[in-house]
Known about the structure:
With about 300 residues, this protein is of the alpha/beta class. The protein has helices at about 40-45, 70-80, 95-105, 160-165, 175, 215-220, 240-245, 250-260, 275-285; strands at about 1-5, 20-25, 30-35, 55, 85-90, 110-115, 125, 130-135, 145-150, 155-160, 180-185, 190, 195, 205-210, 225-230, 265, 290, 300.
Amino acid sequence: MxxxxxxxxxxxxxTYNHTTSQVLNIAxxxxxxxxxxxxxxxxxxxxxxxxxxxxxxxxxxxxxHFFGLIGLVSTFNLLGRETDLHIYGPKGIKEIxxxxxxxxxxxTGYGLYFHELSSKSPxxxxxxxKVTVETIPLDHRVYTNGYLFKEKEGDRKLLMNEVLNYDIDxxxxxxxxxxxxVTLDNxxxxxxxxxxxxxxxxxxxxxxxxxxxxxxxxxQIKGVTALYHESTFLESHEHLCKPTKHSTAKQAxxxxxxxxxxxxxxxxxxxxxxxxxxxxxxxxxxxxxVTLAEDGKRFSFD
Length: 302
């Protein structure tokens, strides 16, 4: 599992800093999460293949989280894309994007599918045999979701020396990796734990974009491998959180601690701050494993 930060600032892009966008590589999927201005340029800088992006997840309809989407959709078309593109986001996103395509007479030559969201309860919105994606309802000024990306449990690892000792036919290998016991020709039952090691630990990633402090999400993301949580303000400006529905670095750390996350990634910094290390220092007083999102930074989770 790998996360590439394309942009991590709030409100407006700056000369060397971009608004929110990330790429998550998990279970052979390349998911694009939010799409602020300049996302396609950042994708090029980070050498992310456009063709690998088949699913885009938009948290909410504030411009710093989706103003780059129409440009990306258009570029895909100009490059002759044929693969379908699925866009998940709040109700209204289809109208916004299709109106721009209509008025510019730029309909795509590839399948463009919108999955509009309106539920205020968590729901699974994508699933295949390797991964699930579910919404994390948040508390912002407009309808907003975070997203929880979670691997499904993989196959168990065959202990070939043990398997060969029991002279087990290869036809059983697949079922053994799925956790099944084996009955030998003489009627002996061989327990699966004698033949395999457990599968690798499941990895998961919680993306919590713009939100007021919302402790209730901790249960949904309990034990998450990595949590990205917005930290627009430092505690000295906590009075701004209520009218703007944002969080401080301290509050992000409190969520990470309650969720027993393995790692906290801070982002969505207000441009009023020049020293990002202050965010890390504030959060580390409440949660140990804190790191800062920065444009172009990659996080790998083995």
